[in-house]
């Protein structure tokens, strides 16, 4: 790879420093992140992330697909929160089309998005704690994550690459017993969060490894484009779910955890509190779930029900047309952002009036968040780099796209 | 929400905080406006984009203090071929605005925003990598996603989806 050979990416600036290469196959870089470090003994002088090892050209691929064919691609960007990506994409296309989505579909989307947030935060918590040396937490986190994945499998048939949302609504009605299972989960999950917190929050080793480590001020976080818990951990109170609501989030009451400290512990505590708030949103979604259809009344966009295709000629024609030639989207452009577990996930879609998107750009939260790593680590100890990488919760699939 | 026709008349839109601020500063910098699907786009003169962003960032009434996104659209074979797109967010006011700069296909270049927002660094490198647009004043303008020795810029419309064989 040219990445590794021809680039003098960093050269020692002084005689006493040396260059250390970390990754891309390092267990604590959460994928294929390569970090170049200039170190003076144990101290980090300069740090530079090197990315692109997982680049698959998804944005280019999208331009060659029909609008409905892009949904499965969006799963593969961020494999820890596929439904958030599904949601962001379909919201953007629906905005381009000017489609109204029935309330039940919106609430189901919210419910599943919060489950996704729990899923993603559990993987983060487990791996982050493991990086720092608390191995037990990982096993507990994955125990609950397994249940969330089973619920995804129940609704969509897939544990991870769900592709469950469609432009205009949701693919299928959730199966019988799904809501009971979610309610059951929402009932016992807060106790499990207590269990994780018992292992970590008051633990003196955990505190020493995280408190005051990898500090970042609010000004730096804003200037570097950080979003999500990375930004809220530095004391900036913004959450797109509350401040610029989408998909019916304005109907839900929840708190946005903010911490002023700006260190690894602050980001940890923000995410753990978010887990509790997500359970709260799930409970509200279950209690207030509206009745009604799960797809918009837009036959030229939404695939007809299987039953109707057997009895109605129009449904069969629409089905044939949507599958073979897609649906045209009026020319224009939209930028739709949602609060993913990692921050602001945004889709910028340009339509030229045909059935294929002219340009799809994914604004990835981790891509911007990763830039904060230098600010967090420079001037600190080498061992803190691992804690800092864990604390910004990166997914390389999303960074490289 | 049903679609309504886009508004492109500057007179109707001059009360939007970002438009008003830019018109107040330099009317020649605003080349056009568009309000479509409840989103505001402002076409900014290529030479004044950095100053326009710095101005909007430090505005007293509605500071657009956060650079959400920076990307590019290729309108090949039309001219001007490229549109560099900036999405700004106002954290205090929860407002968004989109700025656009049009660039010709002959050696497309625009001033870098890294002096306004250091976070523009990766975004500009990505646009440089995938579209071949140069950002003058960028501290480290190198490929970021593609390998260093890659030929061509994959997101340009004249680059085949399957790549060159």
Element-level helix/strand string of chain A: HEEEHHHHHEEHHHHHHHHEEEHHHH
Per CATH, the class of chain A reads Mainly Alpha
Write down the CATH topology of the domain at 10-117 in chain B.
Beta Polymerase, domain 2
Assigned CATH class of the domain at 10-117 in chain B: Alpha Beta
Q: What is the number of helical segments of chain A per DSSP (H or I, 4+ residues)?
A: 18
Give the strand tally of chain A.
8
Strand order of the largest sheet of chain A: 1-2-3
**What would the average pLDDT of chain A be, to the nearest integer?**
88
Note the main attributes of this structure.
heterodimer; A: 401 residues; mainly alpha; three-stranded antiparallel sheet; 12% strand; B: 165 residues; alpha/beta; five-stranded mixed sheet; two-stranded parallel ribbon
Write the layout of secondary structure elements.
The complex is a heterodimer of chains A (401) and B (165).
Chain A: H1 2-5, E1 18-22, E2 34-40, E3 43-50, H2 58-62, H3 71-75, H4 82-97, H5 103-132, H6 135-156, E4 165-166, E5 169-170, H7 178-200, H8 204-210, H9 218-223, H10 229-232, H11 240-243, H12 264-287, H13 306-311, H14 313-325, E6 332-340, E7 343-351, E8 359-363, H15 365-369, H16 372-377, H17 382-391, H18 396-400
Antiparallel strand pairs in A: 1-2, 2-3, 4-5, 6-7, 7-8
Helix pairs in contact in A: 4-5, 5-6, 5-12, 5-17, 6-7, 7-12
Chain B: H1 10-13, H2 17-25, E1 30-36, E2 39-44, H3 49-57, E3 66-74, E4 82-90, E5 95-103, E6 109-111, H4 120-131, E7 134-136
Protein described:
The complex is a heterodimer of chains A (401) and B (165). By secondary structure, chain A is mainly α. Chain A has one domain (68-296, 328-400): Orthogonal Bundle (Cytochrome-c3 Hydrogenase, chain B), CATH 1.10.645. Chain A is built from 18 helices and eight strands. Chain A has helices at residues 2-5, 58-62, 71-75, 82-97, 103-132, 135-156, 178-200, 204-210, 218-223, 229-232, 240-243, 264-287, 306-311, 313-325, 365-369, 372-377, 382-391, 396-400; strands spanning 18-22, 34-40, 43-50, 165-166, 169-170, 332-340, 343-351, 359-363. In chain A, strand 7 and strand 8 (359-363) form a beta hairpin. In chain A, helix 7 (178-200) packs antiparallel against helix 12 (264-287). The relative contact order of chain A is 0.18. Residues 1-8 of chain A have low confidence and may be disordered. Chain B is 21% helix and 28% strand. The N and C termini of chain B lie far apart (45 Å). The mean pLDDT of chain B is 88. Chains A and B meet through helix 2, helix 4, strand 6, strand 7 and strand 8 of A and strand 3 and helix 4 of B.
């Amino acid at each position: 790879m040219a990445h590794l050979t021809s680039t003098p990416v960093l050269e020692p600036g002084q005689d006493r420093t040396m260059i250390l290469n970390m990754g891309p196959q390092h267990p604590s870089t959460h994928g294929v992140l390569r970090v170049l470090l200039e170190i003076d003994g144990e101290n980090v002088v300069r740090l530079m992330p090197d990315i692109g090892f997982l680049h698959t050209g998804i944005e280019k691929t999208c331009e060659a697909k029909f609008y409905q064919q892009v949904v499965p691609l969006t799963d593969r960007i961020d494999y820890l929160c596929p439904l958030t990506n599904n949601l962001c994409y379909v919201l953007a296309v629906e905005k381009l089309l000017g489609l109204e989505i029935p309330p039940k579909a919106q609430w189901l989307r919210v419910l599943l998005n919060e489950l996704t947030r729990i899923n993603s935060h559990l993987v983060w918590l487990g791996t982050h704690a493991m990086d720092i040396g608390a191995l037990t937490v990982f096993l507990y986190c994955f125990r609950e994550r397994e249940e969330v994945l089973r619920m995804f499998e129940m609704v969509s048939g897939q544990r991870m690459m769900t592709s469950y949302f469609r432009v205009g609504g949701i693919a299928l009605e959730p199966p019988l017993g799904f809501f009971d299972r979610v309610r059951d989960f929402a009932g016992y999950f807060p106790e499990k969060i207590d269990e994780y917190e018992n292992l970590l929050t008051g633990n003196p080793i955990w505190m020493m490894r995280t408190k005051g480590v990898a500090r970042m001020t609010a000004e730096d976080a804003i200037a570097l484009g950080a979003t999500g818990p990375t930004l809220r951990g530095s004391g900036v109170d913004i959450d797109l779910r509350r401040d610029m609501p989408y998909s019916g989030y304005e109907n839900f009451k929840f708190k946005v955890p903010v911490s002023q400290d700006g260190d690894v512990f602050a980001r940890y505590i923000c995410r753990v509190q978010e887990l509790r708030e997500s359970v709260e949103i799930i409970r509200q979604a279950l209690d207030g779930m509206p009745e009604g259809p799960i797809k918009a009344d837009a036959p030229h966009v939404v695939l007809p029900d299987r039953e109707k295709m057997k009895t109605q000629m129009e449904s069969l024609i629409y089905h044939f047309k949507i599958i073979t030639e897609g649906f045209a989207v009026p020319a224009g452009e939209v930028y739709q952002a949602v609060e993913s577990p990692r921050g602001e996930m945004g889709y910028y879609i340009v339509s030229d009036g045909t059935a294929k998107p002219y340009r799809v750009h994914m604004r990835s939260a981790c891509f911007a968040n990763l830039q904060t790593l230098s600010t967090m680590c420079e001037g600190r100890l080498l061992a803190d780099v691992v804690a800092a990488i864990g604390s910004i919760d990166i997914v390389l699939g999303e960074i490289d796209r | 929400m049903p679609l309504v026709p886009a508004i492109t008349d500057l007179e109707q839109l001059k009360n939007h905080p970002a438009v008003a601020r830019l018109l107040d500063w330099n009317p020649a910098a605003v080349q056009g406006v568009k309000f479509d699907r409840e989103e505001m786009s402002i076409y900014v003169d290529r030479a004044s984009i950095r100053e326009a962003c710095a101005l909007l960032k430090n505005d007293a009434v509605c500071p657009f203090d956060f650079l959400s996104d920076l990307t590019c659209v290729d309108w090949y074979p039309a001219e001007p071929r490229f549109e560099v797109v900036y999405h700004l967010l106002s954290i205090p006011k929860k407002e968004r605005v989109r700025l656009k700069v049009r660039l010709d296909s002959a050696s497309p270049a625009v001033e870098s925003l890294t002096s306004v927002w250091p976070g523009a660094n990766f975004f500009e490198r990505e646009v440089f990598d995938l579209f071949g647009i140069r950002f003058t004043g960028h501290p480290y303008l190198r490929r970021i996603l593609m390998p260093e020795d890659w030929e061509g810029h994959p997101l340009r419309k004249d680059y085949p989806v399957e790549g060159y064989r």
